[in-house]
Design goal:
Blueprint: E1 7-11, H1 25-41, E2 44-45, H2 67-82, E3 89-93, H3 99-111, E4 116-120, H4 132-141, H5 159-169, H6 188-208
Parallel strand pairs: 1-2, 1-3, 3-4
InterPro entries: Creatininase-like_sf, Creatininase/forma_Hydrolase, MftE
Cofactor: Zn(2+)
GO molecular function: hydrolase activity, acting on carbon-nitrogen (but not peptide) bonds, in linear amides; metal ion binding
Length: 218
């Protein structure tokens, strides 16, 4: 280990993912991606931050949201502490609702002279929530925890179409099951492919280390 190691911190959420996926789905995905990246780049892997800004899912049992303000503060103080000994730190994010807090927190850390960044777990053509994409990933990463006897197709409209209603009433306003997409088409093979895309994308961003104005690595 170098005298000034660099660290990857998975960031997820605790929220409903339909009747068929576990509450920590986003955290599992972020942790798996972060672990694969650290093995490839020889960085340190931190324990995951498992709570995020999930207010849009608050109507569903099991969701615990700490909100954008609290998450921003947590990430800032985490970054300030880690930067005392880490050369660089990067948050690997598995939940879209965390974007606002990440943008604010990492931008502030960078303005304070700390070498921080963040990257999303992304893949081409991903659906919105608990549908084909996330279910395929969990069939690859944690197949025993996917309740295939409970999965049902949800609202398949695009996120841009759903957002106006979701801003007014959350996910429950557009899907009574909390599913956005179709999990019944998911396969472990697709999950393996999607996971590899996420790892490759995140590893490339970190290796390039070109933070944008919001701290996201490009």
């Amino acid at each position: 280990m170098s005298t000034s190691p660099s660290i990857v911190i998975p960031l997820g959420s605790t929220e409903q993912h339909g009747p068929h996926l576990p509450l920590d789905t986003d955290t599992r995905i972020a942790t798996a991606v972060a672990r694969a990246v650290t093995e490839r780049l020889d960085w340190l892997l931190a324990p995951a931050i498992a709570y995020g800004a999930s207010g849009e899912h608050q109507s569903f049992a099991g969701t615990i949201s700490i909100g954008t303000e609290a998450l921003t503060m947590l990430l800032v103080e985490y970054g300030r502490s880690a930067a005392c000994w880490a050369e660089r730190l990067v948050f690997v994010n598995g939940h879209g609702g965390n974007f606002g807090a990440l943008n604010r927190a990492v931008s502030l850390l960078r303005s304070e002279g700390r070498d921080a960044g963040w990257c999303p777990c992304t893949s081409a053509g991903a659906d919105a929530h608990a549908g084909h994409t996330e279910t395929s990933l969990l069939l690859h990463l944690s197949p025993a925890d996917v309740l295939t006897d409970r999965w049902r197709a949800g609202n398949g409209a695009s996120l841009s179409e759903l957002l106006p209603s979701m801003r007014r009433g959350g996910v429950a306003a557009v899907s009574p099951t909390g599913v956005l997409g179709d999990p019944t088409t998911a396969t472990a093979d697709d999950g393996k492919r999607i996971f590899a895309e996420m790892v490759d994308d995140c590893a490339r961003r970190i290796a390039r280390w070109l933070p944008g104005p919001d701290g996201m690595l490009t």
